[in-house]
Hints:
Blueprint: H1 32-45, H2 48-63, H3 67-77, H4 86-98, H5 105-111
Helix pairs in contact: 2-3, 4-5
Amino acid sequence: MTPAPSPNGPDGRDRRGRFAYGNPGGPGNPHAAQVARLRSALLEAVKEADMKAVARRLVKLAREGDVPAIRELLLRTIGKPLEADLIGRIEAIERALCGTGGQHGSEATIGQGRA
């Protein structure tokens, strides 16, 4: 059995292990302020027209067959693809759970009245 945390002891927690009232918390991220300043500087320097020009160039490169540009364009517009075998794995689990042998998951559930 583990001993109960000390009430606002050296670790600043109450008897339930939560941070006690008046606990200042951790030091935080020492680089957060600098990152915020750099991000602000970048946002000030980049205008909407710049982003549109970059997007047009990315689309042009993708249309010309540049694979990294295609990948970046798809990731930024559609998002990450699911794993290719995810549907197959889900169907295999459904088959195992339903005991349907070789049927696909949707066929198995329709036959059992759970469409």
